[in-house]
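Dear support,

Our group has been running a series of protein-ligand predictions, and this particular one with pyridoxal-5'-phosphate is the one our PI (initials K.S.) wants archived with full inputs and outputs. We had some confusion internally about which version of the output was final, so please treat the block below as the authoritative record. The input we submitted was:
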Amino acid sequence: MLLVAQPELGAAEKRALCETIDSGWITMGPRVQAFEEAFAARHGAADAVAVGSCTAALHLILAALDIGPGDEVLAPSLTFVATTNSILYVGATPVFVDIDALDRPLLSLAEAEAKVTPRTKAIILVHFAGRLADPAPWREFAERHGLYLVEDAAHVIGVEGVGTYGEAAAFSFYGNKNMTTAEGGMVLSRSPELLERIRRMRGHGMTSGTFERVSKREAGYDVTMLGYNYRMDELRAAIGLVQLEQLPAWNERRRALRAAYANELGRVCPAVLVPFDDDGPSANHIMPVLLPRGVSSRAVAAFMREAKVQTTMHYPAIHQLSYYRDRFPGLSLPVTEEFCEREITLPLHPSMGQGQVTEVAEILAAAIRGQG
Ligand SMILES: *Cc1c(COP(=O)(O)O)cnc(C)c1O
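Confirmed final output from the archive:
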């Protein structure tokens, strides 16, 4: 089965894990710090805070910005549910905003503008599929309305410019992302004060951690805020350091595979719509395509599965999931809804070959013919 996503793991990761175990220290310590420094440097930043997941990163960012009950946060519905769960964690209200267009499935500025109220406190931008949103109009929008600007950067690890839009960006190292630590996440911010607050909140709000106390820098500790256990550990950080080294080559490989897909799909199934055909900055995290109207995505997925090609969907719209539908009834986001109805995600990962891209395109074409 050709999978939609697949982690790249090998001898170097195994060696790094063994070295960490042999070091005798497996909870947050020098490797986590080295990973934070390397990750920040890779994104042109001075500092970053490693956490247990992107979900934890988003929660910490909103909590550290003092967003809470009574506040509204603008966000897309076309994203993973963690994006808006983080808003609910702090007691604030997500306000769902439609996407721009079927071939540009990023947050619509006009729709965001229409949904601002006196209670709006922040906006979470998602760089969907790895494609960076345009920074200038969003910065201007956030500034004009006095909003915090937060990036859900789970899809855009290693892309120049990410993490510079507003207050902070949240990254994911889950197993299907462009680089992985199995589970893991990172907060990137240009504000040392915000990062310090998040760093403390990551570890129960304590003024020093176990490693600092063992290495005798601190004798005791105080607790100065309500914190969480959102730490990363040394094993994950050791894998992350190895993965980060290879990220540029992997992202370049993804770019080439995506270009091959665009070509092959244009050749064998031109009725399929490939979003983002303008070659803007992207980490090419996933390969979403839209089926022609009236073609059943479920039938196409079943046909492709028979041909040993896995497909998935990004995403079921959050406002249509039971938990959210019950809390936000009657909400309509027409462009998001059509996108989600017609979308399937094709396999895209660095170990794929160009021949497999051609094969997938041909199988997709056959699946659509079978429907027609
Ligand atoms: C994967 C993902 C998340 C959640 O990441 P975790 O590290 O699993 O918490 C959040 N937002 C988006 C857009 C994602 O793709």
